[in-house]
Design goal:
GO terms for molecular function: ATP binding; UDP-N-acetylmuramoyl-tripeptide-D-alanyl-D-alanine ligase activity. Its EC number is 6.3.2.10. It holds the Pfam family Mur_ligase_C. The protein is built from 16 helices and twelve strands. The chain is α/β, with parallel strands linked by helices. The longest helix has 20 residues. The protein starts with a helix and ends in an 11-residue tail after the last helix.
Length: 376
C-alpha cells in the first residue's frame, strides 16, 4: 500500500496540487512556450534576456524550466523550484515527499519567489496542454511553429496545431500572444484567442531572439539594452551550440529532432558554414512520426544532400536519408566518425534525443584525429 501511495506516478498529482497552491499564492507572471520546434531555445533565450542586468531592473527575478521539464510531471518541479520525483524505497520516498511539503511551506512563507516564470509547455497526446494550462495559465503565450511531431499519438499536423492552440486560448485579454510567421495558420489563430497577437519573424535562434525582444519591449526595455541582452544570451546544450575544436567547426543541435527542426537546422548550417569548408551532416533517426516516418526521413535526406557534401546516417530509420555513410547507432558512429571527418570540416549534428548523439559530439570535442587517420 505504501509503495502505491509513494510511487512516481502517484507523486505527480500531489506535486501538481502543491504547484497550484504556490502559483495561487505568489502570482508570478507566466510565459508559456509551445511549438513543434524551438521551445527550449526560446525558453532559455527569453529567460537570459529578461535576466540581463539592464532588463532585470524592469522585470524582477526570472526562473525558467530546465532540462526539458515541459510536461505535466516536469512543470510542477519548476514551479516548486527544488521539487523532484523521489525514487528508492517506499520509506525514503515518503520521507522525501514530506520534505517537499515542508519546502512548499517555506516557499509560501518566503518573499523570495521569482516574479516571472518562463515555462516550456510540451505535449505528445491530445488534451495534455489543456491540463498544463489549468495548472499554469500563461499571461504571455508563445507558439513558435507547427510541424510534424509526436504524430504517433496526435495523428496529423493539423491535430498538432489544435493541441498547441490550447496554450494561446488560455491567455487572458490583457495578456499577449506571440506566434512565429505561420501564414497557413494565421486566420485560425486570431479568432480563437482573446489577447492581442504579435507575429515574430525568423526561424530557429533568430526567432527566439525576436520573441525575447518583443517581451522585453512589453516591459519597457530600450532597444540598446535589448541588443546587449540578446548578444549575451547563451543557447542551451545541444541546441545550435557553435563549437570550435582545432580546425573543425561544429554545430551541435543534437538534443532532439523532427522534420521541421531538421530543415531549420540544416538551413541555418548552410547559411553559417564558412566558404571552402566541407559540410558534413550527421543525422540520426527522428522518432514518433507515425506511419509516414519513412517518407519524412526521405524528404529530410533529400534536403540534407542539397545542403551537405557528406551525409552520415545514424539509426535504422536514418537509412532513408540515403546517407553516404551509415552507422547502426551513436556508439558505432562515435567509434567510426574519425575515419570520415577531415581537417577543416564544418559539422552539423541532429537527431531525436533517444538516439544519444551527444556521445558523438563528445568524441568530436576531444579533438580531430591525426590527419593520417582521416579519410578525405
Amino acid at each position: 500500500m505504501l509503495s502505491r501511495i509513494t510511487s512516481p506516478r502517484a507523486q505527480a498529482p500531489y506535486l501538481r496540487l502543491l504547484a497550484r497552491t504556490v502559483l495561487k499564492a505568489k502570482r508570478p507572471l507566466i510565459i508559456g512556450i509551445t511549438g513543434s520546434v524551438g521551445k527550449t531555445t526560446t525558453t532559455y533565450t527569453i529567460a537570459a534576456v529578461l535576466s540581463h542586468p539592464r532588463i532585470a531592473r524592469l522585470v524582477g527575478t526570472v526562473a525558467h524550466a530546465k532540462e526539458n521539464m515541459n510536461d505535466l510531471d516536469g512543470l510542477p518541479l519548476t514551479i516548486l523550484r527544488r521539487g523532484w520525483f523521489i525514487r528508492g524505497s517506499s520509506a525514503a520516498r515518503l520521507l522525501r515527499l514530506g520534505f517537499q511539503l515542508v519546502r512548499t511551506g517555506q516557499i509560501l512563507a518566503s518573499r523570495d519567489y521569482p516574479d516571472v516564470l518562463v515555462l516550456e509547455m510540451g505535449t505528445d497526446a491530445p488534451g495534455t496542454l489543456a491540463k498544463t494550462v489549468a495548472l499554469a495559465r500563461p499571461d504571455i503565450g508563445i507558439l513558435t511553429a507547427v510541424g510534424p511531431s509526436h504524430l504517433e499519438k496526435l495523428g496529423t499536423v493539423d491535430a498538432v496545431f489544435r493541441e498547441k492552440l490550447t496554450v494561446l486560448r488560455a491567455v487572458p485579454k490583457d495578456g499577449l500572444v506571440i506566434v512565429g510567421d505561420m501564414p497557413e495558420y494565421a486566420d485560425r489563430i486570431g479568432p480563437n484567442v482573446s489577447a492581442p497577437v504579435v507575429v515574430a519573424e525568423g526561424q530557429g535562434l533568430e526567432l527566439a531572439r525576436n520573441i525575447a525582444m518583443i517581451i522585453g519591449r512589453r516591459f519597457g526595455a530600450s532597444e540598446e539594452d535589448l541588443r546587449l541582452a540578446v548578444e549575451a544570451a547563451a543557447t542551451p546544450p545541444g541546441r545550435l551550440n557553435r563549437l570550435k575544436v582545432g580546425s573543425l567547426s561544429i554545430v551541435d543541435d543534437s538534443y532532439n529532432a523532427n522534420p521541421m527542426s531538421m530543415r531549420y537546422g540544416l538551413a541555418n548550417f548552410a547559411q553559417e558554414a564558412e566558404p571552402g569548408r566541407r559540410r558534413v551532416a550527421i543525422l540520426a533517426d527522428m522518432k514518433e512520426l507515425g506511419p509516414e516516418e519513412q517518407r519524412y526521413h526521405r524528404e529530410v535526406g533529400a534536403h540534407a544532400h542539397q545542403v551537405a557534401d557528406v551525409v552520415v546516417g545514424v539509426g535504422e530509420l536514418a537509412r532513408s536519408y540515403d546517407p553516404d555513410h551509415w552507422f547502426e547507432d551513436a556508439q558505432h558512429c562515435q567509434e567510426g566518425i574519425g575515419r570520415i571527418i577531415a581537417p577543416g570540416d564544418a559539422i552539423f549534428l541532429k537527431g531525436s534525443n533517444s538516439m544519444n548523439l551527444e556521445v558523438v559530439v563528445d568524441k568530436l570535442r576531444e579533438g580531430a584525429p591525426p590527419p593520417e587517420e582521416m579519410a578525405l
